[in-house]
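To the wet lab folks,

You asked to see what we're planning to order before we commit. Fair enough. Below is the target structure as tokens, and below that is the sequence we designed to fit it. If anything looks off to you, flag it before the synthesis order goes out.
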């Protein structure tokens, strides 16, 4: 090929990135891309250090800097994520890691389908980005169900999101009129007269990349047939019945009465559970975080 560039089909070499003019061209590329896509505030230091390492040929060090940024919290901003994935794709390409390169580009395409690369980014990276752009956007879906009278289940599920973009989730839920609680578990079960919840999809650096609901407008479900006072408590774990203690004869009728009452309640609950009542499911549309 002309211009002294070395290419192998399907395998991008470092010389394919920087060309014959050594690493300064890549440094200029990274600098221009960083200022075009990253936020003017926050942790641009990790991106700068990664790109400096990449430009100097220290590929493993660049990869380590990006890995630390992704695994931290508050190390990246939402506006920096496109620049992060662009840099990651260049680093993985320089390391001849095609799967890693494609994972970064797939995440970039889902996060920012119309991403504009710096002019110096190799055409092979641009072409691969276009091939991986499916139109899917990162989503988290939240479902609230009343599984039986006064018992609710909230489930959060990550949907159509590349693995590199989904590093975890947070579910926020409120039982009855109580305070908000937060969990990283995908499912919560409670007993209550009503349940409110919303969920966040967490990306690299602890950045929220998609939401379903919000604290101001949560997804809600109410008990269909709760007539008593509001209940606001988690469903307790089953515990064995306490061992019977000895008693005197005068208490025997009371014990028999309590036993009969318990049997009657048990039969009633059994009939209600087996009556085939449909669950109540509340689902609304999730959205990318930028559209909140």
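Sequence we intend to order:
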């Amino acid at each position: 090929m002309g211009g002294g560039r070395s290419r192998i089909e399907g395998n991008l070499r470092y010389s394919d990135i920087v060309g014959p003019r050594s690493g300064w061209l890549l440094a200029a590329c990274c600098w221009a891309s960083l200022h075009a896509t990253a936020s003017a505030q926050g942790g641009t230091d990790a991106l700068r250090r990664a790109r400096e390492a990449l430009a100097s040929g220290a590929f493993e060090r660049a990869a380590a800097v990006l890995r630390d940024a992704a695994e931290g919290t508050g190390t990246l901003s939402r506006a920096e994520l496109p620049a992060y994935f662009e840099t990651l794709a260049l680093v993985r390409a320089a390391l001849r890691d095609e799967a890693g390169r494609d994972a970064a580009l797939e995440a970039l395409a889902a996060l920012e389908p119309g991403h504009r690369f710096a002019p110096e980014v190799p055409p092979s990276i641009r072409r691969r980005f276009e091939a991986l752009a499916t139109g899917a956007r990162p989503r988290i879906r939240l479902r609230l169900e009343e599984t039986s009278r006064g018992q609710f289940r909230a489930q959060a599920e990550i949907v159509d999101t590349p693995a590199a973009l989904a590093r975890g989730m947070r579910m926020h839920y409120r039982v009855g009129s109580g305070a908000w609680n937060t969990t990283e578990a995908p499912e919560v079960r409670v007993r209550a007269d009503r349940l409110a919840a919303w969920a966040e999809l967490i990306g690299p650096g602890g950045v929220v990349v998609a939401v379903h609901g919000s604290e101001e407008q949560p997804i809600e479900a109410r008990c269909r047939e709760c007539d008593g006072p509001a209940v606001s408590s988690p469903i307790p774990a089953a515990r064995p019945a306490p061992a019977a203690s000895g008693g005197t004869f005068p208490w025997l009728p009371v014990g028999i009465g309590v036993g009969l009452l318990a049997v009657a309640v048990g039969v009633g609950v059994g009939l209600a559970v087996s009556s085939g009542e449909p669950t109540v499911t509340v689902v609304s549309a999730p959205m990318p975080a930028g559209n909140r």
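Structural context that might help your review: The chain has two domains: 2-132, 139-235+269-291. Residues 138 and 161 are 5 Å apart (CA to CA).

Thanks,
Computational group
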